[in-house]
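Q: A reviewer asked whether we had any structural model of the full assembly, not just the individual parts. We don't, so I'm hoping you can provide one. Inputs are below.
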Amino acid sequence: MLKHIVLFTVVTVLIAESVHSDILSAPADEPNRNKVNCIEKCKGRPMELSFVVDGSTSIWQTNFTFGLEFLEDFVDKFDISPSVVRVSLVTYGDIVYEGDAFGFNAYTNKDALKRAISQVPYRSGSKTNTSGGIWYMLNQQMKEARTEIPDLRRVVVVLTDGNSQEADQTKQAADDAAKAGLEVFAIGVGQNVSLWELHNIASDDSHVFVVSTYNMLENIKDRLRYKTCATCKMEPMDLSFVIDSSTSIGKGNFSVGMKFVKDFVDSFQINPHTVRVSAVTFGSRVYTEDAFNFEDHINKKALLDQLQGITWRHGMRTRTGDGIAYMRTEQMTQARPNIAHVCIVITDGESQDVDLTESEALQAQQEGILMYAVGVGKVGDQLNEKELNSIAGDPARVLTADSYGQLNLLKNELTKLTCEGTNRARAQIVQALRQ
Ligand SMILES: *[C@@H]1O[C@H](CO)[C@@H](O)[C@H](O)[C@H]1NC(C)=O
Ligand SMILES: *[C@@H]1O[C@H](CO)[C@@H](O)[C@H](O)[C@H]1NC(C)=O
Ligand SMILES: *[C@@H]1O[C@H](CO)[C@@H](O)[C@H](O)[C@H]1NC(C)=O
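A: Here is a predicted structure for the entire assembly that you could use as a starting point for your response.
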């Protein structure tokens, strides 16, 4: 019974979450259009997509077929071809059904791929050998991933109805996949899924999906597709937020701004080896009492709690330069060497210390910090475009929204920009190290 309650809660939370983020937007249909645009843009981006599918006996033929139909629908929105999105699949039960598996090179167009997926036989395995399936994908199929494409996304979708018998091995296999840099989604179906195991399999909590029956998979299709698109396989980075907490923003809009920050970091893997975050707010001064540093959290949940703890200080001034100086001297000095150092400055207006803002930003850029400026408000009104450009050092790293309510429209663009910037920065560092 307990399991059912937990499961029900998770499904409800997932639904509530998506509804919530849709409500926050203004106008109401924007995020959906935004999501559709994102999916449209991403369908032509190269990706290796691997399906690892449970074919154990508890599933039954009908549900197995539902699962395959879900995968057929899922791939339908991508540009399936040898140069863009390629798909592999493997099923498992008591053993890995290697004879039924196919690799990235097997199907070169969407029709052939969908036909192949629909014809995968159901073997009704007496066990749930999830680790076997993941290891086969990792050691046999991923070997064929293209190496010539920079920033190639390698995404794995594990679809299962239950508990594997060897939970430790499943965790081990999932850890191996994570170490290989794969982005793994775990989809659990049914009343008997082990949430613990799904969370072990997935790259992070935002990569776990649960539905109560196979024919409800339809409900998560768009979200999974969106998530697959919105994420970028990211090199490690240390990311600092420098956030305006001046009085002009108001308490409500400040929390909308912080929600944006939380949503933004949610698209990254947060842990000591991948992405770490620090933050500081400023107004009349730097609010060091709210600041936190890279070592202060080990996972996403702890980070989100820290961001949640930052309060609006209604500073009577906008001392952006001091905020950047603090980031540069107190936070980035703690960043890991040889990875991308990224800073995002969020402000609703012109600073009072314009000269200091410009000189501190320049200093930060010269220290190799990749600077982004997010301006909230009307350019030419309270926003000074010249100042935003000088903070970022390049207009291509400046994004603006008319109001805090519209900030969420920038999320995908900012994610894409920082992800690409980070990967480029890291590639340059690696090249420099080689010389
Ligand atoms: C899982 O599958 C692999 C590959 O088919 C096999 O070698 C392994 O023994 C299986 N594990 C279990 C616990 O049955
Ligand atoms: C639920 O999973 C457990 C293993 O954790 C298993 O023993 C049990 O048979 C499963 N029940 C159903 C209905 O599949
Ligand atoms: C945010 O600021 C705008 C003015 O730019 C204001 O109309 C709106 O009510 C504020 N929203 C909240 C939630 O405080």
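A: Points you may want to mention in the reply: The pocket of 2-acetamido-2-deoxy-beta-D-glucopyranose (ligand 1) is lined by residues 94-96, 127, 129, 132, 166 (CB under 6 Å). The two ends are 61 Å apart (CA to CA).
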